[in-house]
Design brief:
The complex is a heterodimer. By secondary structure, chain A is an alpha+beta fold. Helix content of chain A is 68%, strand content 10%. The longest helix of chain A is centred in the last third of the chain and has 33 residues. In chain B, α1 packs antiparallel against α12. Classes of the chains: A alpha+beta, B alpha+beta. β5 of chain A pairs antiparallel with β19 of chain B.
């Protein structure tokens, strides 16, 4: 029987202050990247026109750009993709003078420019998107709403199954994960597309999952070891779930690796974001969720930790007596 | 309830049979338009898993009422009407399983899979066949406004000149130059009085004068059109007059003109009142005509409008273009009328009648979102996704069996069933498999073993406490349940919000996630448990569990 971290007994909670330092540094660095790089929203969110094309002959990018400018499509990004015969053209700004929500005008202007520069029939369109800024704005709003509402749903569910303290700690940890993941996206200069938003939301689910597994153990151990100190119970719970964490994260990372390598261009950002999410989710379950739970427990002692609280109170009484005598 | 191995095996067997049934390749009928233009049914045998547009190629369009040209009085009714109209047209177009549905209150989503000619598809969807009847302007509003427009252009002209270096103006300058070479005399090299010189009264070309009709040399048409659209210029038109172009240029000798019409802003009646349209040949002129019939309220409005304007000219507009030269209103017209198409063929008249009848869109639609993926890119995506899935699964199998030995083998068997159940249930609820959904399935293979890992780790703990194999297995399942249920329910909750607020591919992803979680609960808990029961049943004296 191979066993990883069986009967592990790391004092996770003791080093939490260092972990806070790490969190602070990571978040600060993330903020810097966010301020420097910003977020590169995809056409889906900003509105604009995207055309992915394959040409039969190598393309002169400068000529293509001039052609686009001449059609009134200014400042389009032209990104070569693979060789010199595959390109993505992104025009974020609508054709001059056109109604921005009428995406067709801009899309036609881009096609017109392509016909002129490359010659009609000399290229094939693999993918085309033309999104109005209104649709894009709505999409962004919907994505934010999805995250926001899911927070409340999870809070409510955990309050029902555990206690509100657990829910709050889990949500704080999840918020941390979202922040670090956004910082990661900014750092890697990944394009924020629908697929990436999907990855962020799956990461939220994954991280919550991980936190809940540990909390489930905490809940159980609180009943089992009524005399133990709360931090000991947290430590014990994290250690007991450690083999499961290693295994599950291992299999998840294995599939993500396969997706990143073999899944193709569209899926790669998804795999990268989730890959990072596995790490940040694991970190936050141990070093954000658990200490926050402890902090909340100290501030507002709850029924679940009755034993621990009594023991702590008893401890203080004993200490007081010792001081007195 | 599921106490005996036999009952459990029967349930698992039923699930397997159901999944296989839903995934079994079956014959489906595709409706296609053949090369000869006739619709025909083609039978294809394929796995009945619906693939999203991003996987099979196709076009996705989101359409919205275009209120810039005419404010819709009842947008709700109009969008519903437009929906029916689009359904009829697309049926005619011949697409397998098209998606035509309302999104929100003001949008229509059209998804056409496997379309090879997106431009034509767009045309079919967008050709609004929006019919209007408007009286031509008798007040000479455009003539009166022209000097002021030219002055406005001159004062704004500085801006145009400086912008000439910016890449936008060259196109306008080019058009001007082209106009010069083709026309020579009408365009002036200075901006002064440009519109006055380009827009002439019809009489100038020797036509019978008609109020509100103007001639613009065809070569200068794009230039004039863009100038008239400038806000500074457009502002100068009286509020109750709109400008519209003719559908086709008019040739006079070697010269070709685009006709510009000043029309009353209020249409007498629009295509939403149309109930029937027929193509015919006018016995007198032997030209093609389309006769139409209006509904009762439309007929009343039409009667009132034409009654008031006997002797005036009435422009017939189709999609904002004036069709032919406006005829004079001889007398009050009620329910029936006709559109003279001049030298068009009877075929064109039939097409028009068909779109008018099946398809007069109550209001124009504009495309606000368009996504188009070629079939080859979709095929690449599927191939990549399947490869990633196979490699990912292989790694998960290695990890599980390497670490948990025989118990790992049980988990891998359950994983196989998991994949089968997930795909089967997706096919059953007729879900659309998208690219992110495919990624979700691959990822879920890695995550699906989590429940088994939780159970196995729990068993190991119980074994370490010195409990018997049978007891450890029971306790392992029992104690792991809480964690499994809580973690999965919270994931389903987030997936539900993803589904609620997501669009297209993300919705597909959420659905695969939810089905995956349900399938993994069944396989990891119920199926694996059954396997253990069989195992322990066969070796009741087992003292050492391979885990």
């Amino acid at each position: 029987m191979i066993r990883i971290f069986a009967n592990a007994n790391f004092d996770f909670i003791a080093v939490r202050r260092y972990a806070y330092g790490v969190t602070a540094v990571v978040l600060a660095a993330g903020l810097v990247f966010l301020l420097l790089n910003g977020l590169n929203y995809s056409i889906e969110f900003t509105g604009g026109t995207l055309i992915r094309l394959k040409t039969q002959k190598p393309v002169d990018v400068a000529a293509l750009r001039t052609g686009l400018d001449r059609q009134g499509v200014l400042g389009a990004e032209i990104q070569s993709f693979g060789g010199t015969d595959e390109f993505i053209i992104r025009a974020r700004v609508a054709k001059q003078g056109a109604d921005a929500d009428n995406t067709q005008v801009t899309a036609e202007a881009v096609r017109h420019a392509l016909d002129q520069v490359l010659g009609a029939g000399n290229y094939s369109t693999a993918q085309a998107e033309a999104v109005g800024p209104k649709v894009g704005g709505e999409l962004r709003q919907k994505a934010l709403l999805a995250i926001f509402y899911s927070f409340f749903a999870v809070l409510a569910y955990l309050a029902y199954r555990f206690e509100w303290r657990f829910g709050l700690a889990a949500v704080v940890a999840t918020a941390h994960d979202i922040l670090t993941t956004i910082a990661f996206i900014s750092f890697m200069k990944l394009e924020v597309s629908l697929v990436v938003v999907g990855a962020v939301l799956s990461m939220v689910g994954y991280s919550l999952n991980d936190t809940i597994i540990i909390f489930d153990r905490v809940r159980e151990n609180l009943h089992k070891y009524k005399r133990d100190h709360f931090s000991d119970i947290l430590n014990r719970s994290i250690n007991e779930t450690l083999p499961r964490s290693v295994l599950t994260h291992g299999t998840s990372l294995a599939t993500l690796l396969a997706l990143a390598i073999f899944g193709g261009e569209v899926i790669r950002p998804f795999a990268l974001v989730m890959f990072f999410g596995v790490f940040t989710g694991t970190f936050s379950s141990i070093y954000i969720a658990s200490p926050v739970l402890m902090a909340i427990e100290k501030r507002w002692p709850g029924a679940d930790a009755r034993g621990a609280r009594q023991v702590a109170a008893a401890g203080r009484r004993v200490q007081a007596q010792i001081v007195k005598s | 309830m599921f106490a005996t191995i036999r009952t459990r095996l029967i349930i698992i067997g039923l699930l397997v049979v159901a999944s296989v049934y839903f995934l079994f390749p079956r014959e489906t009928t595709l409706r296609e338009r053949g090369p000869d233009g006739v619709m025909r049914d083609v039978k294809v045998t394929q796995v009945p898993l619906k693939r999203g547009l991003d996987l099979q190629g196709g076009i996705h369009l989101e359409l919205e009422l275009d209120q810039s040209k005419q404010v819709s009085a009842d947008p709700k009714r109009d969008i519903d009407l437009a929906l029916t109209v689009l359904r009829k047209r697309i049926d005619e177009f011949g697409v397998t399983e098209p998606v035509i549905q309302k999104q929100g209150s003001d949008r229509i989503v059209v998804e056409l899979a496997g379309i090879t000619d997106p431009a034509r598809a767009k045309q079919i969807v967008q050709r609004s066949a929006f019919l209007e009847f408007r009286i031509t302007d008798r007040t000479g509003a455009l003539e009166k406004a022209l000097p002021a427009m030219d002055r406005a252009l001159r004062s704004a002209g500085v801006k145009i000149d400086t912008a000439a270096k910016a890449p936008r103006a060259p196109s306008a300058v080019e058009q001007l130059l082209k106009g010069d070479s083709a026309k020579g005399k009408d365009t002036t090299s200075t901006e002064a009085g440009e519109l006055s010189s380009l827009i002439q009264s019809t009489a100038a070309a020797g036509f019978a004068p008609m109020p509100g009709e103007y001639l613009v040399p065809a070569s200068a048409y794009p230039r004039v059109d863009s100038l008239l659209r400038l806000p500074e210029v457009a502002r100068l038109m009286p509020r109750n007059v709109v400008l519209r172009w003719s559908a086709a240029p008019l040739s006079v000798g070697v010269q070709s003109y685009q006709l510009l019409y000043a029309l009353e802003d209020r249409p007498i009646v629009t295509g939403s009142s149309l109930v029937d349209a027929q193509a015919q040949i006018d016995p007198l002129t032997s030209g093609a005509i389309v006769t139409f019939e209006l509904d009762r309220s439309g007929a009343r409005k039409f009667g009132e409008g034409t009654g008031k304007h006997v002797g005036d000219y009435m422009a017939i507009l189709l999609d904002d273009r004036v069709q032919g030269r406006p005829p004079v209103i001889q007398s009050r017209i009620d329910r029936r009328g006709q559109i003279t198409l001049g030298n068009k063929t009877i075929q064109e008249a039939q097409d028009l009648a068909l779109t008018l009848k099946a398809g007069a869109l109550p209001v124009p639609l504009k495309i606000v979102d368009e996504r188009q993926v070629s079939a080859s890119l979709g095929a690449d995506s599927i191939r990549d996704g399947i490869l990633a899935g196979l490699v990912g699964t292989a790694m998960v199998v290695l990890i599980m069996i390497g670490y948990y030995r025989l118990s790992g083998v049980l988990a891998v068997l359950a994983l196989g069933l998991y994949i089968l159940f997930t795909l089967g249930s997706l096919s059953m609820i007729d879900a659309t498999l998208t690219l992110p959904g495919l990624a979700g399935i691959v990822l879920s293979i890695g995550i699906a073993v989590d429940a088994n890992v939780l159970i196995f780790e729990r068993m190991r703990e119980e074994l370490a406490l010195g409990k018997t194999v049978r007891l450890s297995v029971d306790e392992g399942f029992k104690h792991a349940m809480n964690a499994i249920v809580d973690s999965n329910v919270s994931t389903v909750l987030t997936a539900l919000f993803l589904f609620q607020f997501g669009t297209g591919p993300v919705k597909g992803f959420a659905v695969t996630l939810i089905m995956g979680i349900i399938a993994s609960m069944i396989t990891a808990v119920f199926v694996t448990r059954t396997f253990y029961m069989i195992w322990l049943d066969r070796q009741p004296t087992m003292t050492k569990l391979s885990i």
